[in-house]
Specification:
The chain is an alpha/beta fold. It is built from 17 helices and 15 strands.
Length: 448
């Protein structure tokens, strides 16, 4: 791996990379030059299999021709409109297109620049909704530890990743937490029983806080930062019932799980549970243009209609919300998934991927594999009887994967993959061969 030039190092020191130390990056720099489909190439021409689609973003692979062409065509027509004065025709097309693939009557759509903005807007939307429907005391949001909902202050307050948010405390109030199922899994005889207990905790918090003060339950259907935490279908049915009984809105953060990855357009459909709001981002634009969307029930939008003097309009906006280029990209992504039935393809690919990842258990360091469709995670341990953690293995895997031309999400105790929906079974095998080689190299590096 080529070292940085003096100029490059100077410029790297003038910026920062997400969640990593500049000094570490300078020691092991990775500068990409181009990407296409399933692969990226660095400036030296080395090819990398992008097993995570950027970071759960390149749903259709890098630079998908349909999406690129949709943006190019829109650029020749209209690239921006004044959001306080008008809306573009392609933004209206986007609203219609998103509503055509969402569960239930979730047809109220607002496009933003990404997942953080979408979740932030949903939190505000629900608070204002209750204020304008005669329940102004309902403002609290209950989420989970180990969750990640975004990088703004409110979404960070909703997140349960302590190390990421401690530096910015005190954060906005009104956010409460319960533990995800994997936190208690060793205390129950079955995963199903554990999930029932953990789902019930939401009601325990609602009752003890006072239902008149709780506005929303915010959950990721599959939790990324906790290691692809994959609850049971019953878990979400219980939570849905709890929210209904206490007049609490159920928000699904589908920034990662949305748009085909789990074997359905949304994980809500894969689980058979319809939330009141869905927050999306990442894969909606397949990495061509930044985009996210807040999607709510039709009737909730009605609460924001009235006379101008009533000031009941949604008091929230962004300069680049409903951006024409982003909306064009989003429409193209949805059309490609629907027309090619790529969500169904994710189930087929997922079965092959699951089998290959399960095969890694023969190395004696895999506790379990998790996920749905092509969104999969593997938990690493030092001993499969004591389940002792193996952080040095995760650290070694971060290096060996890159050395072997593989990009995936790696923590100290787990790794995750989510290859683009354009992959074929042969691509899954290629990716898994790289994963296995990287794991063997990492085990050798730690003296296993």
């Amino acid at each position: 791996m080529r070292k940085l030039t003096e100029r490059e190092e100077r410029l790297v020191r003038r910026t920062f990379l997400d969640y990593q130390q500049t000094q570490d990056f300078i020691q092991y720099p990775l500068i990409m030059d181009r990407a296409e489909g399933l692969y990226c190439w660095d400036r030296d021409g080395k090819r990398y299999f992008d097993a995570i689609g950027g970071i759960y973003v390149a749903t259709l692979g890098h630079r998908h021709p349909r999406v690129v062409e949709a943006v190019r065509a829109q650029m020749a027509k209209l690239t921006f409109v004044a959001p306080m004065h008008c809306i573009s025709d392609v933004a209206l097309d986007f609203v219609e297109k998103v509503g055509s693939v969402t569960p239930g009557n979730l047809n109220y759509v607002k496009a933003f620049c990404g997942g953080s903005e979408s979740v932030e807007s949903a939190i505000k939307f629900v608070r204002q909704y209750f204020r304008q429907t005669g329940r102004p005391g309902k403002f609290k949001t209950i989420s989970r530890y180990s969750s990640y909902h975004g990088a703004t202050l409110a979404t960070m307050a909703a997140s349960g990743t302590g190390k990421r948010k401690m530096k910015y405390e005190p954060l906005p109030g009104g956010f409460l937490k319960v533990f995800p199922p994997n936190y208690y899994r060793d205390r129950f005889d079955s995963w199903e029983e554990c999930n029932r207990f953990c789902a019930q905790m939401f009601e325990d918090v609602i009752v003890n806080e006072g239902p008149e003060s709780v506005a929303a339950v915010l959950v990721e259907p599959i939790g990324n930062t906790g290691g692809i935490i994959t609850p049971t279908e019953e878990y979400f049915r219980i939570i849905r019932d709890i929210c209904d009984r206490h007049d609490v809105m159920l928000i699904f953060d589908e920034v990662i799980t949305g748009f085909g990855k789990t074997g359905a357009m949304f994980a809500a459909q894969a689980y058979g549970v319809t939330p009141d709001l869905i927050c999306s981002g990442k894969g909606l634009g397949s990495g061509v243009v930044p985009i996210g969307a807040m999607i709510a029930r039709d009737d909730m939008g009605d609460a924001f209609l009235g006379a101008d003097d009533d000031e009941v309009h949604f008091a929230h906006g962004h300069t680049f919300s409903n951006n024409p280029l982003a909306c064009a990209a989003g429409i193209a992504v949805i059309d490609e998934i629907v027309e090619k039935e790529l969500d169904k393809k994710a189930l087929v690919l997922g079965r092959r991927l699951e089998a290959r990842l399960e095969g890694l258990k023969r190395y004696g360091v895999v506790r379990e594999t998790r996920g749905k469709g092509i969104l999969r995670g593997v938990e690493l341990v030092k001993n499969t009887e004591t389940m002792a953690p193996f952080p040095e293995l995760g650290k070694a895997l971060k290096r060996t994967a890159i050395e072997n031309g593989l990009i995936m999400r790696i923590s100290t105790s787990w790794f995750a993959v989510s290859p683009p929906l354009i992959a074929e079974e042969s691509d899954i095998d290629e990716m898994c061969d790289l994963i296995e080689k990287s794991l063997r190299d990492a085990l050798k590096a730690v003296g296993w």
